[in-house]
Design brief:
By secondary structure, the protein is of the alpha/beta class. About 20% of the residues lie in helices and about 40% in strands.
Length: about 130
């Protein structure tokens, strides 16, 4: 039986460079880029052993006709478990995110969380166990 060896999420973007700058400002580091020089079609950033691919929707459709496009409303979200939701939320806004829900506690008081959207409107959630 084949086994999964690594996990990655790819986000289709209109503005790969803008999204890359945003995720770099959140502390994620660039791990891969294609092509190696010139306008970027796909770049991967990494944190906590997970990679997020930022792919040009236009290039993906030109290369293999995936029929993808960035959404104007989120259907998924990426969850970042962190040690300080309030600071990550502030950092994300300073990096160019749009506020969705300011830091708040879960109804049962066990979690502290917040939501933002990155420059291409992908929804992100920051969460930590309640301090």
């Amino acid at each position: 039986m084949a086994q999964i060896q690594q996990f990655q999420v790819n986000l289709f973007c209109d503005d790969v460079d803008g999204c890359l700058e945003f995720y770099n400002r959140l502390g994620l580091t660039e791990a891969f880029r294609a092509p190696a020089s010139g306008p970027v079609a796909h770049v991967e950033v990494e944190a906590a052993g997970i990679r997020i691919g930022l792919t040009s929707a236009r290039v993906a459709n030109e290369l293999v006709d995936l029929g993808v496009e960035p959404a104007d409303r989120p259907a998924t979200e990426i969850v970042f478990w962190c040690d300080d939701v309030d600071t990550m939320y502030t950092q994300a806004l300073a990096a160019g995110a749009t506020a969705v829900v300011a830091p708040t506690d879960s109804p049962d008081g066990r979690l502290h969380y917040a939501w933002v959207r990155d420059p291409d409107a992908h929804q992100l959630k920051f969460v930590q166990p309640h301090p």
